Amino acid sequence: MRMYDIILKKREGKALTSEEIKFFIKGLVDGSIPDYQVSALMMAVFFKGMNHEETATLTMEMAHSGDMADLSELKGIKVDKHSTGGVGDKTTLIIVPIAAACGVTIAKMSGRGLGHTGGTVDKLESIPGFCTEYDLLDFINIVKKSGLAVIGQSGNLCPADKKLYALRDVTATVDNISLIASSIMSKKIAAGCDRILLDVKVGSGAFMKTKADAVALAKEMVSIGKLVNRKTMALITDMSVPLGNNIGNNLEVIEAVNTLKGKGPEDLTEVCIELASRMIYLGEKSESLEEAEIKAREAIKNGSALKKLIEMVKAQGGDPFYIENTEKFPKTKYSVEIKAEKDGYITEMNAETIGIAACEAGAGRETKEDVIDTSAGIILYKKTPSFVNIGDTIAVIYGNDENKLNKAAESFKNAIKISGKAVKTLPHILDTVE
Fold first, then answer.
1. Is-above-0.85 flag for pTM?
2. Is residue 98 within 8 Å of residue 336, measured between CB atoms?
3. pLDDT digits over 212-250, tens only?
4. Where in the sequence numbering do the catalytic residues fall?
């Protein structure tokens, strides 16, 4: 078998066999296939696409290219959740304890933030003492004890995906549904889950900018899940504006705690209830989604979800006092208020630009080596489609570097548009794919 023939076959729009995909992934990982041939195949896939069977095979070969987490020691159905990324997306901090409080076993591996999107691991590590680096045995023991744990991706998971993504990133072949779907699903499968819940974001702050593209991606991933015997569900959720009001690491932990107390913003609460309900349903802790929603709401109302978060923090070395009293979190030295410069309705609040502003304030990183300021970020006081009077505070940006803060303020101003006519906002849940 020759890589040349595989490239030619895909260039002509023909489907690759399982053996050809296996050959490609093996050569990618062991280095026997040079980067230029890998890049050539990715470009052929970009233009000619892959069918469902090809995509499923690619996914499973990448999943099995390194370590596979064995979670069979854990009782019950293990449910994992993946978000395609956004701004203010602290849903994992909320839905994981809700689902765990309802009896679902949660053994989740999450990532760090890069660019304008935040990362769950960074947010959790803003809690003093909280550890996200464990080997598989310790990870499993924590879940056995507490019923839930969230750690960073550990071991040699999906080396094929890491190599492939690095090349796609520099050869303009990232934006392909099959390649995105296989990248996401391979990591979820390698992480050992039984069921998968997907939160596919769409809008200015998301990778998928149109609903049609988001639905196509969700359908591809759900199809992969079905083909590899992993029950998978997806929600299409709006990311045209940031989710919730707080953006930044400990600011998002604070908002997550408030939401678990039943005092969260309406949009964040609604999205989290929908996601948590599906985790409960996938974990077979309810007979229907309707029953699952009742259980999710009750877990917030009776305080059991918040107790689960505290339990997880303790189990992973964090100081639970910061969850019990969020005023304990450190504050920044400086802050800048963004005020309305005229009367009118907020007609646009570009989530990506606001995410960039939060990064500029210190809350994010542009490269993996950057050190983040866990207390920096943005709190939104007005969102689309609110009416504002001149001088009203739209947001406050927090940081410990005045120069960075001023730059962030300018970026934030560019994200906002105010008009004399109100706009109709999108629903928070745009679609479902099951």
1. yes
2. no
3. 999 999 999 999 998 888 999 999 999 999 999 999 999
4. 82, 161, 168, 183, 187
